[in-house]
Amino acid sequence: MTPDSVPPDFSREMGCTTADLLAVLPKALSGADLRVDAQASKAVANFGGAVLELSWQSRPPRRIALLQIPVLVVHFRYVGFDAAGRHAVQRRFDLATQRGGG
């Protein structure tokens, strides 16, 4: 990912539940004043003037034979960040939300 590749406003599908996302947000957005409204499926992370607004929606799980993967569509809206700032926050978020691998 390069600084130019993190747009100010985008959505992505994540293979997690709302509970999974809420559990990882403090680590994924460390250094921010984080406000979460789980009932409204929204969070705001204030980085001293620059803000990341998150919202999410659950979708039906993906199924492959007996395997079932949860689907959460997460919308990211960066306000007041330059390209390098968006990249830094998104990189930390992505690293915190990675699973498994090998």
Could you explain how this protein is built, in words?
By secondary structure, the chain is an alpha+beta fold. The chain has helices at residues 18-28, 83-97, and strands at 9-14, 33-37, 42-47, 50-64, 67-79. A 5-stranded antiparallel sheet has the order 1-5-4-3-2, with helices on one face. Helix 1 packs across helix 2 (83-97). The longest helix has 15 residues, at 83-97. It is globular and about 45 Å long. It starts with 8 loop residues before the first strand and ends in a 5-residue tail after the last helix.
State the gist of this model:
This protein has 102 residues and is of the alpha+beta class.
> What proportion strand?
35-45%
**Unreliable residue stretches:** none
> In angstroms, what separates the terminal alpha carbons?
20 Å
The overall strand count is 5
What is the percent of helical residues?
A: 25-40%
| Gyration radius over CA | 14 Å
Biggest sheet overview: 5 strands, antiparallel
The strand line-up of the biggest sheet is: 1-5-4-3-2
The number of distinct helices, counting runs of at least 4 residues, comes to 2
The residue-averaged pLDDT reads 93
What class, by secondary structure content?
Answer: alpha+beta
**Shape, per Cα inertia axes:** globular
Order of helices and strands: EHEEEEH
